[in-house]
Each structure stands twice: as C-alpha cells, then as structure tokens.
Design brief:
Bound molecules: guanosine-5'-triphosphate, magnesium ion
Shape: globular
Structural class: alpha/beta
Order of helices and strands: HEHHEHEHEHHHHHEHHHEHHEEEEH
Oligomer: single chain
CATH topology of the largest domain: Rossmann fold
CATH class of the largest domain: Alpha Beta
Radius of gyration: 24 Å
Number of helices: 16
CATH architecture of the largest domain: 3-Layer(aba) Sandwich
Number of domains: 2
C-alpha cells in the first residue's frame, strides 16, 4: 500500500527533470551561435516542427510548449533577445563575442513517446528544463591549470614559447625575464611589467598566428575580476622539483598563480561542471585547417588538454567534486556551412579522428559518444561550378559587408589530420558569411545544418 502511495510522487519527480548541457569550446568556436540556435529553434518547435525534422520529439509533434525561464541563481540570463535581434537586424549581423558568464534556461513540456504511440492521444505530459552556460572561450583553457603546479605550468609554457611562431612573438617578454631572474627580489612593479609583456605575447599569438593554447584565459578575457592584482603574474623559469624561495620574484608569482586558481578558476569550473550530464564539444576545425599546420596542431593540443580536464569515469575529479555524470558526449565540427554536403561528411570524419583518444576514454566510462559536422546558423546554399573543365561542389553565400553573393569553392577537407606535405597547398581563405536574416519573433526558428541531429543525440532518451 505504502509503495503504491508513493508512486505518483516519484513519477512526478521523474517526469520533471533538469538536464545540464556543458557546451565546451575554445574562443570563437561557435558557442554563442549554437546556444542561440538551440534555444530559438526549440522555442519555435511547436509552431514550426519542420525546422527540426531529425529531433524525433519535434517531428512527432510531441513538444507541446516551450518557454524561457528566469535565472535560478546569480548567473545572469543568456541574452537571447540581443543575439536574436542581431540576426533579425537589417542587414543581419553576428552576435558579439562573449565577455562574461551567462546561462540559458529553457523549459519544455512534451508528451511521452510510449504513451503517444499506445493511445494516439496527448496525455502523459512531462517537463524538461535544459540549462546551458555560455562564457568566453578563453576561460576553458584555465581548467588544465587546476591539475598543474606553478613550476610545471611555467616549464611547459616557456618550452612552448621557444618553438615555432611563438619564438619571435615572445622575445620582449623573455628578454625581460632574462634581466629579472626568478631568484630576484619580489617586486610588485616588476611582476606587473612581466605580466604585461606576457599578456602582449598572448594577444600577438592569438591575433597574428591564430594560436589556441593561450593561458591563463583571464589574461585575454578578464570578465569581472574585482582585484586585478590577482592577474599580475606570468611563467618564470624554475628547475624541476625546485620550489620558489620565499621572498623571491618567482615566489610572488607562484602565490598569485595559486590565488588565481583558487579565486577564479575553481569557482568557474564548479559552475561549468556541477551536475552536468550531457556535453557538446564545439571545434572550429575549418578555421584551424585554414590557418595552417602550426595553428592546427596548437588547436589540437589545446583541445586535448581541456578534454583531459573533463576526465570521464567513476573516479574523475569532476564526478567527485561536482557530481558530474556525463553519459553522452557529442564532438561537433562547427560552421559546416562553409563546405558543401560531401565535404561535410569529410569534416565529420576528420572530427571523429581528431578526438579518438578522448572518445575512447569516454566510451570506457560507458558514455555514448558521437562526432558530427554542424552549422548552428546556416549562411550558405550548396551549388556546383565548373573549374578547369571539372564539375565541383561549392557553397553560395553573401560575405559579411559584401554586396553580392559569391560562389565559394572551399577545396577538399581531409578525412584524417593532414600529413606534413598537405600544408604546402593551404586552404583558400574562408570568408565570414553574413548570417541569414530571421524574423525576431519566436515563431520561425533559425536555419541550420544538423542541429536537430545533435539535439536528438543529446536529448532523445530524455524526450522519449
Ligand atoms: N558560417 C557560419 N559561421 C558561424 C557559425 N557559427 C559561428 N560562426 C562564426 O563564428 C563566429 C564566432 O561564433 P560565436 O558563436 O560568437 O563563438 P563563441 O564560441 O561564442 O566565441 P567566444 O564568445 O569568443 O568564446 C561568429 O561571429 C561567426 O562569424 C555557423 O553556424 N555558420
Ligand atoms: Mg560567445
């Protein structure tokens, strides 16, 4: 009797669940575009189920109602009004880069597939709240710091600064360090100057060479840090196993590094990871291919480091500290509307190849894993052209700020990470396409490629 009595309560709870989706992506990878399209397309799923044909619950017209929810804590709402207004403007433009934490909260009412099939009636309704955090992509690269000591991080960063394109960009900073050794006296002014030179170096790596592995993230995108002296540090040469002697410049830097981790990185990671069940990792593979061998390798390294921080499995730090139980991970190559259909298949294969190691780790922890190529906001149409007497697939779109649509042949996307010889004949420069103009109201949704398949993978079991 008692068991039966408690059943309805349990059912109610089970049928009103909240799922947290972690959107993991470096700077400019397409997080804000993805969240905008995700939320806006679901908001219009009732009126326009045709926008999401591969999201089963939408295609079967089982999504009965959707609405945005107000914040449940002190993280402000994702500015959907602004991002949609940018796409609805004349001419439409891309939403601005993200400079602080924001959270989207979307509530869905849906009817269960089983009940619907059995009876053909709309009955057994359930509620789902989806929560997604948006943040400046630079911050993601702070996560690996949590597992590193100041000495380890310094050595790795200095070694990296002495190879490839970084070498010439690091010169002023490294010259300064040579004049002000780690063993020198702890001087606030010198620490600040060293920090500024190191920061200039990071900015140059990003702007001139399109490199990704740039730490700490807040040096490039500070957000709201009340005490900026927290940031006045940089890597310093320390011998392996040696810790900085008290009172030295290196000791001052180390103290700040640890304070930064404690006051800034850990709280962010806690927000990002707490009770997360689903994860989508967004990667702008095409831009990295386009930027050349070093940028491509650097993006890969940055991705590996970040995903290592998101270790899966029972004993993962994430699970122990924050109760994260990620059981589905989608690795998605973004902005796939830059290439025509066949190349999108290549892009998906390349994406799968790039994340082979983290995929295996996730599978080992019994998570379901998939790779995809998607465009959150589709700016182009597919077409064909004739180049040197050969028929080739192209995309057609309006470049940002342009007057006329262009026919763009993007070349062939390799299905595996390109070997050294490939880089001689670099990709054509990718244009930034103007986004499609949408109606601002909730009704119409946003054109996309494969967003519905991504949503189905991430939510299908919950919306069943
Ligand atoms: N063609 C095309 N371009 C896209 C798409 N998504 C994003 N972009 C481009 O990529 C840029 C960056 O996208 P965002 O969504 O702002 O990237 P983000 O990850 O939020 O970047 P941060 O906020 O700086 O971390 C946009 O301004 C567009 O130019 C897409 O689906 N198609
Ligand atoms: Mg953003």
């Amino acid at each position: 009797m008692r068991v039966l009595d408690s059943l309805p309560t349990l059912t109610t709870l089970a049928r009103n669940r909240t799922v947290r989706l972690a959107v993991t992506g470096l700077s400019r990878s397409g997080k804000t575009a993805f969240i905008t399209s995700f939320v806006q397309n679901l908001l219009s799923a009732v009126g326009r189920p045709g926008r999401l044909p591969f999201l089963r619950a939408a295609a079967e017209r089982r999504i009965l109602g959707t609405r945005l929810l107000a914040p449940a804590d002190d993280v402000p709402s994702f500015p959907l009004g602004d991002t949609v207004a940018a796409l609805a403007a004349d001419p439409p433009h891309w939403p601005a880069g993200t400079i602080d934490l924001r959270r989207a909260r979307l509530s869905l009412m849906f009817s269960s597939a089983g009940f619907f099939r059995r009876t053909g009636l709309l009955g057994d309704t359930a509620g789902l709240t989806v929560e997604i955090l948006d943040y400046p992509g630079e911050w993601l690269l702070d996560l690996p710091l949590l597992q590193q000591s100041y000495g380890d991080w310094s050595r790795a960063t200095l070694a990296l600064a002495r190879v490839g394109a970084r070498t010439s960009l690091a010169r002023d900073w490294l010259d300064f360090l040579a004049r002000h050794p780690a063993e020198g006296i702890a001087d606030q002014g010198i620490a600040l100057q060293a920090h500024q030179l190191y920061r200039n170096f990071l900015v140059a790596c990003r702007e001139r060479e399109q490199l990704s592995l740039l730490q700490p993230g807040r040096f490039l995108s500070p957000g709201q840090i009340t005490d900026s002296s927290l940031l006045w540090f940089c890597p310093m040469p320390l011998a392996i196993g040696a810790s900085a002697r008290p009172g030295t410049l290196a000791a001052l830097m180390e103290e700040r590094f640890e304070a930064y981790k404690r006051a800034v990185v850990r709280p962010f990671f806690a927000l990002l990871a707490r009770h997360v069940e689903r994860q989508i990792v967004l990667v702008d593979v095409l831009r990295a291919l386009n930027a050349g061998e070093e940028a491509f390798a650097d993006q890969r390294l940055a991705l590996d480091l970040t995903l290592a921080a998101f270790r899966f499995g029972r004993r993962s730090l994430l699970r122990l500290l924050f109760g994260a139980r990620i059981d589905r991970v989608l690795f998605a190559a973004t902005k796939a509307d830059h290439v025509p259909a066949l190349q999108r298949d290549h892009l998906e294969a390349l994406m799968a190849n790039l994340v082979e190691a983290p995929s295996l780790r996730a599978r080992g922890a019994h998570a379901r894993v998939a790779a995809a190529a998607l465009a959150s906001i589709r700016c182009t149409e597919d077409g064909t052209d004739v180049i040197d007497g050969r028929k080739v697939d192209i995309v057609v779109g309006l470049p940002e700020g342009g007057e006329r649509r262009i026919r763009f042949f993007p070349g062939i996307v390799p299905v595996t990470p390109p070997p050294a010889g490939f880089w001689g004949e670099r990709f054509t420069e990718f244009p930034v396409f103007q986004p499609p103009r949408i109606t601002g109201a909730e009704g119409d949704g946003i054109p996309h490629i494969n967003l519905d398949k991504a949503l189905d993978f991430l939510l299908e079991d919950i919306l069943a």
